[in-house]
């Protein structure tokens, strides 16, 4: 039987899902609370129980926007979130449950962020992205030896340039990251995530010991920062930001290496570097320099009007990127505060 659950209020939700194969921080009540409280989305976690134990899970949020319509997303602002099922019959019942729900509640579409393993090969994905996963299975020396030579050289260069790192979970450190994030997003022609999102990120991730930041310093100035989350034995390198003026110091290699060592100490067995668009050659090159496992991640979009899965044309940069890049910082932050809840 499939039940629809709100994990933000379900007792001991995280304990129920920890044993599910493939489960990560994205399935947790912590992440659900951030999305619900930051954007006002409605959590609908389609859960299949056997003997009071969850054996199937399809986590969705219902996004209801006057600008972009009503739809189901699994999950908003989440790199990947596969359906989880112990057998094919469980999977079929989950698919039927959320498809029927979407039709009855007049969703425009639903989007699955993952699904290559269980979707019919005849179904074309709406988009194809890449995930890079770095395995943590030895000492720090073993891990250092496992990465490519260029990465070892860049880590060592940061040391020679006197770049230092500090691990933190403080609210003030997250505010320092937010300032760098605004600079980084502007450089890419995008608004930053809402300030409310980072407030909730602190309360539900950092303050709950489910993540940390690594700040890179040069001459007492924070020049780069990485944000990491962990749940069970899985972890993710979720966000990064930097001052482009200090790019040559290779602080991005430095803080990521420090984050990897900390995750290894905490008992993680792997760290995902998140999603990458295949066309983003620079980011892909940076991630593959750590010698991770590279896999395709398929997104699927089911259009209720078409009653079928549909493809999405490749995204291209448009005039909005130029506008955001030249927008004054206060207006750019305001744009992020106002626009993100409609984007999902």
Q: How would you portray this structure in words?
A:
- 42% of the residues are buried.
- The chain is built from 11 helices and 14 strands.
- A hairpin with a 2-residue loop joins strand 9 (211-218) and strand 10 (221-231).
- It folds into 2 domains: 2-129 and 297-343, 3-Layer(aba) Sandwich (Aminopeptidase); 131-295, Gcn5-related N-acetyltransferase (GNAT) (Aminopeptidase), CATH 3.40.630.30.
- Helix content is 37%, strand content 30%.
- Helix 2 (29-39) runs antiparallel to helix 7 (195-206), helix 5 (149-160) packs across helix 8 (251-266) and helix 6 packs across helix 7 (195-206).
- Strands 1, 2, 3, 4, 5, 6, 7, 8, 9, 10, 11, 12, 13 and 14 form a 14-stranded mixed sheet that branches.
- With 344 residues, the chain is an alpha+beta fold.
- InterPro entries: Acyl_CoA_acyltransferase (IPR016181), BioF2-like_GNAT_dom (IPR038740), FEMABX (IPR003447), PG_Glycine_Bridge_Synth (IPR050644).
Give the topology string: H per helix, E per strand.
EHHEEEEHEEHHEHHEEEHEHEEHH
- The CATH topology of the largest domain is given as Aminopeptidase
What is the distance, rounded to the nearest whole angstrom, between the alpha carbons of the first and last residues?
A: 29 Å
Shape: globular
Tell me what the CATH architecture of the largest domain is: 3-Layer(aba) Sandwich
Q: Which whole number gives the mean pLDDT? A: 94
Strand composition percent:
25-35%
* Secondary-structure class: alpha+beta
Q: Any idea how many domains? A: 2
Number of helices: 11
Helix content: 25-40%
Q: Low-confidence spans: pLDDT under 50, at least 5 residues?
A: none
Number of strands: 14
Largest sheet: 14 strands, mixed
CATH class of the largest domain: Alpha Beta
Rg, nearest Å: 20 Å
């Amino acid at each position: 039987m499939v039940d629809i659950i709100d994990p933000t209020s379900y007792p001991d939700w995280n304990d129920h899902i920890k044993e599910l194969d493939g489960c990560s921080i994205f399935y947790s009540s912590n992440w659900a609370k951030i999305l619900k409280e930051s954007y006002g989305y409605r959590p609908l976690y389609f859960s299949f129980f056997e003997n009071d134990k969850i054996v199937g899970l399809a986590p969705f949020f219902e996004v209801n926007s006057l600008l972009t319509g009503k739809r189901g997303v699994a999950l908003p602002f989440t790199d990947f979130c596969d359906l989880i099922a112990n057998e094919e019959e469980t999977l079929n019942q989950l698919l039927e449950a959320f498809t029927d729900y979407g039709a009855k509640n007049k969703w425009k579409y639903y989007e699955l962020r993952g699904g290559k393993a269980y979707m019919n090969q005849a179904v074309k994905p709406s988009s194809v992205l890449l995930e890079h996963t770095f395995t943590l299975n030895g000492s720090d020396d073993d891990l250092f030896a496992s990465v490519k030579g260029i990465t070892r050289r860049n880590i060592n260069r940061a040391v020679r340039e006197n770049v230092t790192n500090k691990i933190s979970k403080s609210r003030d450190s997250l505010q320092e990251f937010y300032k760098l994030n605004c600079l980084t997003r502007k450089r890419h022609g995008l608004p930053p995530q809402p300030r409310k999102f980072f407030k909730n990120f602190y309360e539900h991730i950092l303050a709950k010991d489910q993540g940390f930041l690594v700040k890179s310093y040069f001459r007492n100035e924070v020049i780069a920062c990485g944000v990491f989350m962990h749940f069970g034995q899985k972890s993710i390198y979720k966000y990064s930001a930097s001052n482009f003026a200090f790019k040559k110091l290779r602080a991005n290699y430095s803080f990521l290496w420090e984050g990897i060592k900390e995750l290894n100490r905490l008992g993680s067995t792997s760290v995902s570097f998140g999603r990458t668009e295949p066309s983003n050659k620079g980011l892909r090159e940076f991630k593959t320099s750590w010698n991770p496992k590279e896999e395709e991640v398929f997104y699927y979009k089911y259009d209720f009007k078409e009653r079928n899965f549909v493809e999405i044309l490749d995204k291209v940069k448009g005039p909005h990127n130029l506008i955001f890049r030249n927008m004054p910082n206060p207006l750019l932050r305001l744009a992020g505060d106002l626009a993100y809840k409609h984007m999902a």
